[in-house]
Design a protein that fits this description.
The complex is a heterodimer of chains A (325) and B (382). Helices cover 29% and strands 24% of the residues of chain A. Chain A is an alpha/beta fold. Chain A has an eight-stranded mixed sheet, sandwiched between helices. In chain A, strands 2-1-4-5 form a four-stranded antiparallel sheet. In chain A, helix 4 packs across helix 5 and helix 5 (157-169) packs parallel to helix 6 (187-204). Chain A is globular and about 65 Å long. Chain B has 14 helices and no strands. Chain B is globular, with a radius of gyration of 24 Å. Classes of the chains: A alpha/beta (325), B mainly alpha (382). At the A-B interface, helix 2 and helix 3 of A face helix 11 and helix 12 of B. Bound molecules: adenosine-5'-triphosphate and magnesium ion. Magnesium ion binds next to helix 1 of chain A. The site of adenosine-5'-triphosphate has 17 residues of chain A, from strand 1, strand 2 and helix 1.
Chain lengths: 325, 382
């Protein structure tokens, strides 16, 4: 993993204009994604994960504004492109699997035709005949060919999810953004689809940005993990390192709130309290009101970055090295 | 599909029966007795009175009269019109119903199309004075007092500008030596339009469904060709100028109806579009890199169309009372005018016949909208 990264996001900041005031949903976020790498973005509901994902494709609603930052895809700043040039990047280079994948298919068109629509929009992406490509994609995601000409309402939840993934893969994008794509499915189907998505991605050497609030899912799919709290990335590092020795108390709390492989729950430092009100963020470290290790300095000043190899976190009181097992 | 349509047809037949019963009881509940009208009418010869009495069972008790009435309705024999004596009710209606159907069908198609396109545009370009002006203008026209507006249209475009004839169905001078009668010609014109529409619609359907290359050009081309051929053939016949005379008399009423009714569809389309724009599949369509126009037309408008088509059913009721006003103001001898004059002349057989036929027509139109909806929304379970 050397050379220029596929995607480099620097200092990305997104505000929503609401009646109550400006809401900063994404606050100076920077990260990179290498070719073939899966970055897991994890955080509680409302911390700005979807806003970040949509900002990359410039698909935010009109009430949102990207205040500053850069989104470089192989050196091209997507935020500086004209609307027309941007359309050529959508789906062709960066495809998306949406949070509510259940409603991401248009109910009045056949599913196969909706995939063909994407292929016809980017004719240079795939040289095959579109109908042939759809059959190939259906094989890839384990869907039966005879459902190609069916309508979305004739699909089960799991089938829709597979179709959505097939659609995202259609133009062989470099990066797939998956925003909690499996939340509406039952655990068994969710697990199987996740594993398949991971396999396909590795086979095709595609990069992925996987967004979830669920640490267990993130642990399963990602090579690198970014933990987000109140619009900021608070911890970042190789998945193995972060899961072995988390630095930030928030990461530790998130990890303790999912059952371990043996099924028992770690009870230490369970996450208490509510996520902060984005209109009235706590001073200093935004996490301090919920942090069991908070000291006076946490309330007053933004925390410094603590590094441990490639892993880093923003915290005043990182656990001492001797405390880790 | 067949099962669904069968179910709807049965429902509609039941509704029709209920409607027929209501018409009977309304007619019998009103002051004045049908038998008196006939008995005291000096214009009716005695043998005609006798025939009518038998036909309507006037000397029998009410429940038997009801049975006779139902039998008459089912066999389509409404007897002789009293104000058009000796023509039969069926004959009068057969002459006038097609005119009203033509007038309102044309106006409905125009106003629906116009309302839908405008609604689509103002929903997409929110804010700004275009939306404001269109909405204000549309609502003003929608709520304007119809008879006054119709008279203003006549005054402006027929009287002052002289672009259109002032009311009526045809120009009698032109028709003095006409080789055929106006109704025959009118029915032939309607038949032509119907056949041509079916052919063009079939071409649209096949090219869209089969994903034929260049479907758009084939469709526009076939539409233009069909229009050119139809006009050409009619022009070359010796009744072309007469057909044009009928069309000329239709333009102003159709225009008036379109202008006063498009705003309903427009506002409904606008709201439906705004609702649909929030759906995830619209975001997905954008994420696919589709141009804004394709997102708007192919995804948002196509889905927003569904509730708007449902509302067509309600506008059918509007068409019935609209026909009474518009036909009276434009002296257009259709069903609306027939209903009013039959009621004023106490021509009960004609009034009953007109009611029943208007009812049948509205219910058939309802069925047609249902079929259209099934075609548009794949989620309907057949
Ligand atoms: N359209 C909007 N208008 C105003 N504020 C918004 C809008 N969408 C999101 N927000 C605000 O931005 C913040 C981040 O929202 P976002 O949807 O990105 O969070 P998320 O991490 O994806 O949450 P979830 O896990 O629930 O999907 C929240 O505080 C939310 O209230
Ligand atoms: Mg989200």
């Amino acid at each position: 993993m050397s050379g220029a990264p596929l995607l480099a996001v620097t200092d990305l900041t997104v505000d929503y204009h609401t009646r109550a005031g400006e809401v900063r949903a994404v606050d100076g976020v920077s990260f990179t994604v290498e070719t073939g790498q899966a970055l897991g973005l994890v955080g509680e509901s409302g911390c700005g994960k979807s806003s970040l994902a949509l900002a990359l494709l410039r698909l935010l609603p009109e009430s949102a504004q990207i205040r500053q930052g850069q989104v470089l895809l192989e050196g091209v700043d997507l935020l500086a492109l004209s609307a027309n040039d941007m359309r050529a990047y959508r789906w062709n280079r960066i495809a998306m699997v949406f949070q509510s994948a259940m409603n991401a298919l248009d109910p009045v068109y056949r599913v196969g035709d909706q995939i063909i629509e994407a292929l016809e929009q980017h004719p240079s992406a795939v040289s095959q005949d579109p109908a042939e490509r759809v059959r190939e994609l259906y094989d890839l995601v384990n869907l039966n060919h005879n459902s190609i000409d069916r309508y979305p309402h004739e699909y089960s939840g799991g089938m829709k999810q597979r179709a959505i993934i097939a659609m995202a893969l259609a133009c062989r994008p470099d990066l797939i953004i998956a925003d909690e794509p499996t939340t509406a499915l039952d655990v068994i189907v969710q697990d199987r689809i996740l594993r398949e998505l991971g396999n396909i991605r590795r086979e095709l050497n595609m990069s992925m940005l996987y967004v979830s609030h669920d640490m267990a899912v993130i642990a399963e799919v990602s090579d690198v993990v970014a933990v987000m709290y109140a619009g900021k990335i608070v911890e970042y590092g190789d998945a193995a390192a972060v899961f072995k020795r988390p630095i930030h108390p928030y990461t530790r709390a998130l990890m303790s709130s999912f059952p371990s492989v043996t099924g028992e729950k770690h009870d230490l430092a369970t996450l208490s309290g509510e996520p902060p009100n984005p209109l009235d963020l706590p001073s200093g470290c935004h996490f301090h009101p919920r942090c069991p290790f908070a000291t006076d300095v946490c309330k007053e000043q933004a925390p410094p970055t603590v590094r441990r190899g490639t892993q880093w976190a923003d915290c005043w009181n990182p656990p001492g090295d001797e405390a880790d097992g | 599909m067949a099962a669904y349509l069968l179910k709807r047809t049965v429902q509609i037949l039941l509704t029709l029966f209920a409607f027929i019963c209501i018409v009977f009881f309304l007619v019998n509940a009103q002051p004045g007795d049908i038998s008196n009208v006939y008995a005291l009418n000096p214009e009716l010869p005695p043998d005609a009175k006798q025939r009518m009495q038998e036909q309507f069972g006037l000397n029998q008790p009410l429940w038997q009269q009801f049975l006779v009435y139902v039998k008459n309705v089912l066999t389509g024999s409404f007897g002789l019109s009293f104000s058009h004596y000796p023509r039969s009710v069926a004959d009068v209606i057969g002459e006038r119903l097609p005119r009203t159907v033509a007038l309102f069908f044309t106006a409905t198609v125009f106003s629906f199309y116009m309302g839908f396109v405008l609604g689509k545009i103002i929903a997409w370009k929110r804010g700004g004075w275009t939306e404001y002006a269109t909405t204000l203008g549309g609502v003003t026209l929608y709520t304007v007092f119809t008879p006054w507006f119709a008279l203003m249209m006549i005054w402006l475009f027929a009287f002052k500008a002289g672009w259109f004839p002032i009311g009526k169905f045809l120009d009698p001078v032109l028709w003095r030596d006409a080789p055929l009668n106006a109704n025959t010609l009118f029915n032939r014109m309607m038949l032509t339009v119907f056949v041509v529409s079916v052919i063009v619609f079939a071409i649209f359907l096949v090219t869209t469904r089969r994903r034929v290359a260049g479907a758009r050009y084939i469709q526009i081309g076939s539409l233009a060709a069909a229009a050119a051929v139809t006009v050409g053939i009619w022009w070359s016949t010796d009744v072309g100028h007469l057909a044009w005379d009928l069309i000329e008399h239709m333009i102003l009423p159709v225009l008036t109806l379109t202008i006063i009714s498009f705003a309903g569809t427009m506002l409904l389309t606008r709201n439906s579009m705004l609702e649909t724009m929030r759906e995830d599949f619209v975001l997905a369509a954008r994420a696919k890199g589709l141009p804004e126009k394709a997102v708007r037309d192919r995804h948002v408008a196509r889905n927003a169309l569904l509730p708007v088509v449902t509302s067509l059913v309600f506008s059918l009721a509007f068409a019935v009372d609209g026909s009474v006003i518009i036909e009276s103001v434009f002296s257009w001898p259709g069903m609306g005018q027939t209903l009013v004059s039959a009621a004023l002349a106490e021509d009960l057989p004609l009034a009953v016949g007109a009611f029943v036929f208007v009812g049948i027509f509205v219910l058939l139109a309802h069925l047609a909208v249902d079929v259209l909806y099934v075609y548009l929304d794949p989620r309907i379970r057949y």
